[in-house]
Amino acid sequence: MLVSALVGAADLNPLDTVAALADKIPFVHLPSGLSPLDRAVLFQIRLPRVVLCALVGGLLSMAGAGYQGVFRNPLVDSGLLGASAGAGLGATLAIVYFGAVGPGAIPPAAFLGSLGGVAVAYLTGAAASRRTGFGDGVATLLLAGIAVGFFFTAVQTLVLQRSAEQDVQTVYNWLLGSLSGATWQQVVSILPYAAVSIVVVLLHGRHLDVLAVGDEEARALGMRPATVRLIVVAACALATASAVAFSGLIGFVGIIVPHMARRLGGPGYRSVLPLSLLGGAGFLVLADTLARTVLSPAELPIGVVTAVVGAPAFVWILRSTQGGRT
To answer: Which tens digits make up the pLDDT trace of 215-259?
Structure first.
């Protein structure tokens, strides 16, 4: 985060920038040579973006780890449960039909769409599991999420085909992910949802460890697997929805970072979840720094950067999973 605050299109003096940042620490007073314009760039443009990026990355990664614990599969993330497709459909509807309201309509629409996608997938999967009695409900929930994702994507495609070219371009720009234009107001808006989801998911790390051995064993230990699964899925859905509402769709964070967390801290979710939270924050801040500096003063969509890094890493994870080493 410190490196990201020092790097950018505007050439800020590193020592003066560090002094200006340290001056904000309580009981620390350091003179800084930054001009008023440089201070505005640092505190009103760069820092909100860095903080929001860290929050989004941490939430996406932690949610991915939580979903992987629920489904007992290291290749699962929020995209397989309808969250991403729901957010994309919500943002598309807001851009196409409520564009006159302005860009402020996109985050709440994406937020509601993401939560709606997960809710539909969960209710559909739970109903199918009760009717068929197939497995423990995990497989049907995952299949329902995939089906809901395909349906929402089809509706989104239909809406885009009937939209103006400018609206289509705006939708695609949002889908590629971007944190440009981040503000402190957005940081404040995401904080309550981030705090609730982080606390709930981290408190259920031990429960996810018990779920890893199977539902029957979990019941024998006095735990209710269905209840735990519902709580964790709801908290992860809240984390994902609040993140994508302000960043757009950013892929691979929820798969790559939890896997690296397991390599560092072992398979237990009491260590995987906090490591994923911190690692996701650092990973996305690094990706965003590359996105805004590689082609400076132009910017790459952050989703492109994460895909370039994440696609090869995903193949590596897939191979190691098939080899039984994950």
So the answer is: 788 888 888 888 998 899 999 999 999 999 989 889 889 988 999
Cis peptide before 297 (omega within 30 of 0): yes
Backbone dihedral region of 266: left (phi > 0), alpha (psi from -120 to 50 degrees) or beta?
left
Q: What is the CATH number of the domain that holds 24?
A: 1.10.3470.10
Number of domains in the chain: 1
Reduce the DSSP state of residue 25 to 3 states and report it: coil
- Strands (E) located in 51-182: none
- What tens digit of pLDDT does each residue of 89-109 get? 999 999 888 876 666 788 899
The three-class DSSP label of residue 35 is coil
Domain residues for the domain of 56 are 2-322
In whole angstroms, what is the distance from residue 179 CA to residue 207 CA? 34
Distance CA(130)–CA(167), nearest Å, equals: 42
- Can you give the C-alpha Rg of the chain in angstroms? 21
Least reliable range by pLDDT among 13-22, 137-146, 257-266, 312-321? 312-321
Is the separation of the CB atoms in 247 and 84 below 8 Å?
A: no
By the 8 A CB rule, do 83 and 314 touch?
A: no
